[in-house]
Write a structure and sequence with these properties.
By secondary structure, the chain is of the alpha/beta class. It has 13 helices and 19 strands. The radius of gyration is 21 Å and the shape is globular. The structure holds ligand DWN. Ligand DWN binds next to α2, α11 and α12.
Length: 418
């Protein structure tokens, strides 16, 4: 099927266009199942000067493909706009760094047999994962965000990954024993080209190991805030397996991992068998309704119910004179803040450990982002935990605050106070 897919682009407007066919299977049998209105880009944090300027906003809605069950954004924003100047740094979240060290150790223990083996990471950001293994094998990062890669700790190509770049890398460095890509394969419009490029780069016995947020978690944990313009796809194993097999690759195994809510780690290659758990996981997805359009329509209704509950909670606390701040300025936080309409009337500021984010303002809601140091001198009554996906680590880290009576509000799947 590869190469036979004809994508008919809709009106290509400035910096974004509307999909009229499924980019994974080419079917025109796609339907909008959820609409979050027009929002600014989730990682487009503003400096002081930008506050006075008009902020670009883009439609944010989900389509469901009845043919391959893919869940995807209806409108695609130009990748250059999204990723060329990027505020997200992996190393700002310690739990994420530790998670990637674990993956790096698994890669070297299971797949790296010689210092000559070559490991490539697509979307390598600041090099956190590859820095763990760079002394044990040859490594190369690939990432388009020059403001992040300029300080990367490993050899990095500052560009988007494509089949053309894959061939260039293969000719220069040889085939890769492992290609890994984490929180990347939901961000790329022409996923077929990227997967074909991985196949081009991978050795015959190599492994393509990648992690993506799992659409099953979006529907259960209610993490609707993971929907933003960077995330063009909300993957299930069903859609990834269909795409990989259409390119002659096999899903060798899959793991469900507790990162970003719940993500799936897929192990694929040009050879090897499929572990029994692959079939079990596919059956689980069918039982959860991930291959049914109605599941996503019902999910949309759950978001509205939670929106009402959280706004009532915050309004009530403000009416009682409570001081509320935000904790963590994740991209997903901006989907929640914008769609729920939570701004300076409810939150005084947001703390975040990312140096690039401190001193900026959140897109659309214009909340000041400050260093967590502020919490050493100003004690709020309530903290809205926008980085809820690290709740365990954060609640432990902030146990002294909690001993002083500060309460945390977990916003999704249903607003609750802990
Ligand atoms: O796909 C993506 C996801 C997986 O990661 C990218 N589009 C960008 C990014 O999305 P995100 O910004 O929602 O990711 P995180 O890792 O959930 O962001 C956490 C934010 O919270 C960071 O800005 C760092 C901050 N943080 C903090 O202030 N204190 C994190 C921890 C753990 C903390 O203790």
């Amino acid at each position: 099927m590869a190469g036979s897919i004809k994508r008919i682009f809709g009106n290509r407007m400035e910096n974004f266009y509307q999909r009229v066919t499924c980019p994974l299977c080419g079917s025109a049998d796609i339907e909008t199942v959820l609409d979050l209105g027009e929002t600014p880009l989730a990682n487009a944090f503003l400096d002081e000067a930008a506050l006075e300027k008009e902020e670009p906003k883009f439609p944010l809605s989900l389509n469901f493909c009845r043919n391959c069950f893919s869940v995807q954004l209806r409108h695609v924003v130009n990748g250059e706009v999204l990723f060329k100047n990027y505020h997200y740094a992996t190393s700002a979240s310690r739990p994420l760094v530790e998670h990637f060290y674990g993956l790096a150790d698994e890669i070297t223990e299971k797949y790296v047999k010689s210092p000559e083996d070559f490991v490539v990471e697509i979307g390598s950001n600041d090099g956190a994962l590859l820095s763990r293994i760079k002394d044990r094998c040859r490594v190369l990062g690939i990432d388009p965000a020059s403001n992040i890669t300029e300080s990367a700790s490993v050899p990095t190509v500052t560009d988007f990954f494509t089949t053309a770049l894959a061939e260039e890398i293969r000719l220069k460095h040889g085939r890769a024993r492992v290609v890994t890509a984490n929180n990347v394969m939901a961000h790329i419009d022409d996923l077929r080209d990227v997967f074909a490029g991985v196949k081009e780069l991978l050795s015959d016995d190599g492994r393509f190991i990648f992690e993506v947020h799992w659409v099953g978690n979006l529907l259960t944990e209610g993490g609707f805030d993971q929907i933003y313009h960077e995330h063009l796809y909300y993957h299930s194993l069903h859609t990834l397996k269909t795409l990989l097999e259409s390119l002659g690759m096999t899903v060798n195994d899959i793991k469900l991992i507790p990162i970003h809510g719940e993500s799936i780690r897929v192990y694929a290659g040009k050879s090897g068998e499929s572990a029994p758990f692959v079939r079990e996981f596919l059956d689980r997805e069918v039982k959860m309704g991930l291959t049914q359009k109605s599941t996503y329509v019902n999910f949309s209704n759950k978001i509205e119910t939670n929106k009402k509950k959280l706004l009532e909670l915050l309004s009530g606390l403000k009416a009682d004179g409570k001081k509320i701040i935000g904790y963590g300025a994740p991209a997903k936080g901006n989907t929640l803040l914008n769609y729920f309409g939570i701004g300076p009337d409810m939150l005084d500021y947001i703390t975040d450990t990312t140096p690039q984010k401190q001193g900026t303002y959140t897109p659309g809601t214009h909340l000041p982002v400050v260093s967590p140091e502020k919490l050493k001198t100003e004690i709020p009554d309530y903290i809205l935990l926008l980085s809820w996906n690290y709740a365990g680590a954060i609640l432990e880290k902030e146990k002294e605050l909690r001993k002083k009576g500060v309460k945390f509000i977990i916003p999704v799947p249903e607003a609750c106070i802990v």
